[in-house]
Amino acid sequence: MAIRFAHANESHQSRAAAAPVTDMQLERKDVCRLKGRRHGPAVTCLEGAVWITQAGDPRDHILIAGEKFAVNRRGAVLVEAVRDARVRVTS
After folding, report:
1. Whether the predicted model's global pTM rises above the 0.70 cut
2. Is the N or the C terminus of the chain less surrounded, counting Cβ atoms within 10 Å?
């Protein structure tokens, strides 16, 4: 099985906050790696479904459209598309 890493297809500054916002389109099985911090980033599933795992956390998280996950640990965070998905990452 090959892992294909997704790249952001759109990046912009949020007008409501100073935090950078990146929207990504992920095809099924695409993996996006984020750098976790104690407070952030936040991942919002806009369409589809994604699986999230973070270093040091024994739990996995599944998000469907409309759900949000706030990273709360330092280390790698992997976001994998369970099916085609669009996510928003807010730092």
Report:
1. yes
2. N
